[in-house]
Design goal:
single chain; Ferritin; 2 domains; mainly alpha
């Protein structure tokens, strides 16, 4: 075992011990016995991980010091005691995500990575409740938590149209500022539309396709875990149900029933532990690409269209008027996510978009004058 691997294993061991120490401390603070049990069992999993790294280090003849909590761990626990456990849950979630990323690079730690991801989801469930506890009635309400993609799709649609409008308005105004003739402005605008839309579509396709491949690989790993260690997977699933408020016995019974059927077990574990819908895997990459292309093009065509029918300053004026209206409407659509007033969001979007266009128009004018001189 080389020195780099030794250092990596030691760091893994310390991280797991600190996590276990934190979860045990949170369990002691927790008034809800069910959530306290969840924390204790999460700590047990982290200790099991740490013991695995200690075993590998021992086999390699490498010694290690007795565990002492790091200062960061002590500070987090102090804050939790003084201000409430909820305060440190986001930090713990971030740490679990880091653990997933670190273990994903180590072939033998794939199972640990999945468990770290599961812990992150458990913390998210706990964080959503008041005082770190979860009422039993929340269980049914949270069954549909993976069906919340509509808002994200609408947000992507608004932002895609906004990108097309602002970028192409700036391009058209920059070219117009350089005193290029109507034909040149139209060609530049259409080129910007096609290039931008194609770039957006390709980026969206790569993003969604990469996510699909990642999800497929995670489900494959989860399937292997179910085949090789069904008891541990049942424990993880029971923990999730307990975190939602199900009694310990009921949670274990539900987990055992689900794990009794391999096909349904893979489906449920993918949804509950990984947050993945096996039937969709994040959606169609081609649908996302085409949608992104169309939405960008819709926004980008607005400042270009007047130059198809008009020329000169008249075309520029109409392009600015149409773009101003478009920017304001997009700004009002954003209020769906921000909750701000229509006038505020619409005006803000309009001002920023027109400011960007004015800057590129000025730069274009300077370049045009310089070239003419």
């Amino acid at each position: 075992m080389d020195s780099k691997t030794i250092d990596m294993y030691k760091n893994f061991r310390i991280d797991e011990r600190n996590s276990a120490f934190t979860y045990r401390s949170l369990a002691e603070m927790q008034k809800d016995a069910r959530i306290a049990e969840v924390y204790n069992r999460m700590a047990a999993v982290e200790i099991k991980h740490a013991e695995k790294w200690e075993e590998l280090l021992t086999e390699a003849g490498v010694g290690f010091k007795p565990f002492v909590p790091e200062w960061r761990t002590k500070v987090l626990i102090w804050l939790a005691r003084k201000l409430g456990p909820e305060l440190i849950l986001p930090s713990l979630q971030a740490k679990e995500k880091t653990g997933v990323a670190s273990y994903a690079r180590v072939g033998m730690a794939r199972g640990m990575a999945m468990q770290e991801q599961s812990h992150g989801m458990l913390l998210d469930q706990i964080k959503k409740t008041n005082n770190g506890g979860m009422e039993g009635s929340s269980l049914a309400l949270m069954e549909g938590r993976h069906r919340s993609t509509g808002g994200n799709a609408l947000r992507a649609a608004v932002l895609g149209a906004n990108d097309g409008l602002v970028s192409n308005l700036s391009l058209v105004m920059g070219v117009a500022g350089a005193a290029v003739d109507n034909k040149g402005i139209l060609i530049a605008g259409m080129a910007g539309l096609l290039a931008g839309a194609a770039s957006m579509a390709l980026g969206e396709w790569l993003s969604v396709q990469s996510s699909r491949e990642l999800y497929a690989n995670q489900i494959k790993i989860e399937t292997e875990e179910i085949d090789q260690a069904p008891e541990e997977e049942a424990e993880e699933l029971a923990l999730i149900y307990e975190a939602r408020g199900a009694p310990v016995d009921q949670a274990r019974q539900m987990a055992a029933q689900i794990l009794s059927n391999r096909d349904s077990a893979v489906d449920v574990m993918a949804r509950e532990e990984l947050g993945i819908d096996p039937e969709e895997l994040g959606g169609s990459a081609w649908t996302a690409a085409i949608t992104s292309f169309v939405l960008f093009a819709i926004g980008a065509i607005i400042p270009v269209a007047p130059f198809i029918f008009l020329t000169g300053n008249q075309a520029i004026l109409v392009a600015i008027i149409l773009s101003t209206i478009g920017l304001f409407l997009i700004g009002t659509a954003i209020t769906l996510f921000t909750g701000r007033s229509v006038l505020y969001s619409g005006s803000r979007m309009m001002i920023f978009g027109l400011l960007a266009a004015a800057i590129t128009f000025g730069i274009g004018r300077l370049i045009g004058i310089s070239l003419a001189g």
